[in-house]
Amino acid sequence: MSAFPTPWSDPTGRPDVPPRHTPRAAALLLSGTSHECAEARRFTVRTLAAWESEHLADDARTVVGELTANAVRHARAHRPLDTAEAEIRLKLTLRPAHLLISVTDHGDDLPAYPPPAKDLDTAGRGLRVVEALSDHWGWTRYRPTGKTVWALLPLRPRS
């Protein structure tokens, strides 16, 4: 799948007919090392620029950073580096009202939503940040192992 799909064009060629929204999608496969979180954020910014959706970049980069860091930190904890199960997949899908960000890994543990962090804590805020920036977030579990953690960011600014 190309990280930069071709722009959609109206097949009818009629200006009086509003175009259908065709979802755009881009994916990035990560091996699960911590330096790849930065690559996931860069990929997100480049993809949104190609889709002329730069206004989403700050929030999307933050959510992608949190979700990929969680996948690297928690899902990879018990996986050998040389297995396919160590892979993490980031997918961005531009829909009519939302940007869907999803991160899939082969980890067994579901996301934990910890109690509010104390002021001096250096970890434990990631999913709270994702919740604050998104309209909805959640996860889908796979059997025998794996999960996708996802978030829907609104295309329009919140009022």
From TrEMBL:
Which Gene3D superfamilies does the annotation name?
Histidine kinase-like ATPase, C-terminal domain
The family database entries (CDD domains) matched by this protein are listed as: HATPase_RsbW-like
Query: Ranges for the Histidine kinase/HSP90-like ATPase domain?
Result: 37-151
Domain of life of the organism encoding this protein: Bacteria
**Region ranges (Disordered):** 1-22
* InterPro entries recorded: Anti-sigma-factor_SerPK (IPR050267), HATPase_C_sf (IPR036890), HATPase_dom (IPR003594)
UniProt keywords (A-Z) are: ATP-binding, Kinase, Nucleotide-binding, Serine/threonine-protein kinase, Transferase
MF terms (GO), sorted A to Z: ATP binding; protein serine/threonine kinase activity
What is this protein's record name? Answer: ATP-binding protein
